[in-house]
Amino acid sequence: MSVQDGRKLQLQVGDGNAPVEGFSTIGSLQVSALDVRLEPHDASHAGSGPWRKLHAVGGQRHVRVEGDGLFANEAAEALLRSYALGGVRANYVLRFGNGEVLEAP
């Protein structure tokens, strides 16, 4: 098995079209920090006793990426800026240099 550089990734954003959503490349990134976690859903209630009950399925997923990179072009930069400042919720795809893909709504 060869060594892969998993610190490089490509960021893509969805256009929101249904039934097949298209994705455009926003840019490339050299990752300095990547945090992926699942916080379980607390299903405790008054009758649970002293212990927390965690729901077996579900929970809240978080992905945080930090790094330095380049936008694909000025239009990609303007699109991402407008989404961030406008509070637009979009689907994102992270494509890592080793071929792995992480999709996040």
Topology:
Layout lengths: L7 E7 L8 E17 L20 E12 L2 H13 L5 E5 L4 E4 L1
Antiparallel strand pairs: 1-2, 1-4, 2-3, 4-5
What does this protein look like?
The chain is mainly β and 105 residues long. It contains 1 helix and 5 strands; from the N terminus they run βββαββ. The protein has one domain (8-104). Strand 1 and strand 2 (23-39) form a beta hairpin. The radius of gyration is 18 Å and the shape is elongated. The mean pLDDT is 85.
Please work out how many helical segments DSSP would assign.
Answer: 1
Segments where pLDDT lies below 50 for 5+ residues? none
Secondary-structure content class: mainly beta
Question: Gyration radius, to the nearest Å?
Answer: 18 Å
SS elements, strand count: 5
Question: What's the pLDDT, averaged over the residues?
Answer: 85
The SSE order reads: EEEHEE
Question: How far is it from the N-terminal to the C-terminal residue, by CA?
Answer: 32 Å
| Molecular shape | elongated
Estimated share of beta-strand residues: 35-45%
Largest β-sheet summary: 5 strands, antiparallel
How many discrete domains? 1
Which sequence of strands runs across the widest sheet? 3-2-1-4-5
Q: Helical amount among residues, as a percent range? A: 10-25%
Short description:
By secondary structure, the protein is mostly beta strands.
What keyword list fits this structure?
single chain, 105 residues, mainly beta, 1 helix
